[in-house]
Amino acid sequence: MAMTVEGLAFMFSASILLQILACAIYSNWWPLLSALMYVLVPMPCMFFGGGTTQFLTSRDGGGWIDAAKFLTGASAVGSLAIPIILRHANLIGTGAMFIEFTSFFIFVCTVLCFHRASLEDEW
Length: 123
What we know:
- The protein is mainly alpha-helical.
- It has one domain.
- The protein has helices at about 1-25, 35-40, 45-50, 65-90, 95-120.
- Helix 1 (about 1-25) runs antiparallel to helix 5 and helix 4 (about 65-90) runs antiparallel to helix 5.
- It starts with a helix and ends with a helix.
- About 25% of the residues are buried.
- One of its GO terms (biological process) is late endosome to vacuole transport via multivesicular body sorting pathway.
C-alpha cells in the first residue's frame, strides 16, 4: 500500500510539474488555466458519488449519479479543450500545448491507478 501511495504522489507531482514547466519554459502563464480543470474533475465524485470512484464504472443510474458522470466527463474534456483553444487563439505555443497534453495523460494515468487501487480490498 505504501508503494502505491508513493507512486500516485510521484505521478501527480510529475503532472503538476509539467503544468508549471509548460508555463515557465515559454514565459506564458495561460497554460496554467487548464490546471483549474484538475481541481474540477474530482468534485462530482466528492459531491454526488459519495467520495468514491466506483460509481463511474457502474451501470446504476439515477439523477445525481448521471449528473456526476456527465460533469466528470465534461471536466475531463475541458482539460483537453483548454490548451487546444489557447493554441488556436495563439495565446500559447505548440510546445506548451503538447506539454499540457503530456501532463493530462500522466494525470489520467494517476486517476486510473487510484481507481484500481481503491477497488482492492487491502487499500
